[in-house]
Amino acid sequence: MRYSLFFAIGLLTAMSFSSCGEDAFTQIVDIELPEHEPRLAVHALAFSESDAFGVLVSNSRSVLSKEEFSVFPDAEIQFSGPNVEGVTFSYAPDDGRHYTELSQGWAAGDEVYTLDIQQTDYPSIRAQQRMPRAPIVLDVTVDEEGALSESGERLDEIVIEIQDEPGEHYYALQGEVDYQYVDENNDTIAGYYSVWLESNDPILSYAEVDRRGALICSDGAFNGNTYRFATYTWEDLPIGLMSGSKLRIRVTSLSRDAFLYYRSLDQYWGADGNPFAEPVTVHSNIENGYGIFGLGHTTIYEIDL
């Protein structure tokens, strides 16, 4: 009996070694990858304070494609909703976008706007967005050298106080300075420059909104309450130096899709070139296609410097 047990153990050991050949744990499965179906790709973001709305209409490409994307001058675009019915678009070959002029005050808060696009070689696409209400800005204050940067340097602090309404809201903060002075020839010189805002507040993150730097956030941390955004800038604010100079703060209430697009786009570029970063998919909301249609309602608050 003892020898039979030893024989059985030896037989099992020999079988286990014989099964550990080169292909013992290898299985080859052929997977047929579906071909990419090209569709229209759209970039369309409209802001309440802008009287021009530009729409880029191109096409998608597969990951392995080496072809350049195309733009379509013949695309037919319809933008519908309160105060925009009947607007027409014209193609601008210098940047490949279609533009239309919008009337002042066109944006109606809580109203739905629809974008329809047709092009003969692709399925028609549609997207809808609800225009947010204009954000309520209570106050903006500037404290010269009142903030500390992450590296401990003294910088000008800009505090933006808002009243958040109940519900889900998303914000973008931007700034610029209008300056004016009289030179040695007694000529009045006027102009403006962007003020790039930064913050140590963890709910704020950076993004480019309407081609300008911005701080963005959701209202998850202060829903329905007042909130003070403590920001600072590396720009030189002409505090008390130029008569007539103003700080202009833009607070924009973004549609949810616009916020998700801007945030994911910044995360995408942040992960680009990093082999250890998790891949990021840029947010899209185009039915039957790709891209973004988003809206923003802006309140501008000015203070004298």
UniProtKB/TrEMBL annotation:
<keyword id="KW-0732">Signal</keyword>
<dbReference type="InterPro" id="IPR025345">
    <property type="entry name" value="DUF4249"/>
</dbReference>
<protein>
    <recommendedName>
        <fullName>DUF4249 domain-containing protein</fullName>
    </recommendedName>
</protein>
<dbReference type="Pfam" id="PF14054">
    <property type="entry name" value="DUF4249"/>
</dbReference>
<feature type="signal peptide">
    <location>
        <begin position="1"/>
        <end position="20"/>
    </location>
</feature>
